[in-house]
Amino acid sequence: DDRPELTVPDALEILAMQVQQVVGTSGWSISECSQNCTRLRGVRSVDIVLRPESGLSVMTELGPPSYLLAEFPATAKALAEGTAFVAAVDLDGSDPAETALLSKFGYRAVLGVGVPAGQKCFLLEFFSHGDHRDLVEIAPLVRVLTAYCASRLSGSQPLHRRASWSAR
After folding, report:
1. Element housing 87 (H / E)
2. Per mean pLDDT, which range of 19-33, 79-93, 98-112, 152-166 is the poorest?
3. 130: how many CB neighbours lie within 10 A of its CB?
4. How far is CA 48 from CA 78, 117, 147, in A?
5. Quick one: how far is CA 103 from the chain centroid?
6. What does residue 23 show for φ and ψ, rounded to 5 degrees?
7. Ramachandran category for residue 155: left, alpha or beta (phi over 0 → left; psi -120 to 50 → alpha)
């Protein structure tokens, strides 16, 4: 789309909504890395949590407005390298900080994709109440689409790495 007012977060939001509709993820989040790359600040999100007392899924705002990257090694690596990771409560090798946050909010798995975009970087996350396998399956495609959005709108060149993502 050639809309001059379209920003990288705008494009990532459009992508997130489409992926959520097609794949059926439980929620998504777009965060922006601070200038010194020590904090991650939430920009946009759709969070749907399960209420155990009623069994209903409800939309909500999750978590604090920002996180220290040092506390989330898988996220920090994805942002630094422009890669992706999957963490799940039942997946060996998952980042313990990620799985603790998943458990706190009632999710079972997350796909995180680092999106370098010129002088900025973003994290696009998809959350699941179910199994992590769907997230593992879509990870390579989401990486390609996020890299395209970022390079097209920020003028930056995508990182040319071998297809690299990990189920952590």
Report:
1. strand 84-88
2. 152-166
3. 14
4. 24, 28, 26
5. 16
6. -90, -25
7. left
90 touches 113 (CB < 8 A): no
For the chain, percent helix, then strand, then coil, each to nearest 5? 35, 30, 30
Phi, psi of 50 (to 5 degrees): -90, 130
- Nearest of 130, 105, 120 to residue 151 by alpha carbon: 120
The band of 151, judged by pLDDT with boundaries at 50, 70 and 90, is: confident
Amino acid at 23: V
- Go through the chain and tell me how many residues it has: 168
Q: What rounded mean pLDDT belongs to the chain? A: 84
**Residue 122 DSSP label:** E
Going by pLDDT thresholds of 50, 70 and 90, the confidence category of residue 47 is: confident
Reported pTM: 0.83
Domains and CATH numbers, the chain: 8-167 (3.30.450.40)
Distance between CA atoms of residues 29 and 18, nearest Å: 13
Give the Cα separation of 135 and 153 in Å (integer). Answer: 25
Q: Give the Cα separation of 23 and 135 in Å (integer).
A: 9
CA 41 – CA 34 distance, rounded (Å): 7
What CA–CA distance (Å, rounded) separates 99 from 1?
36
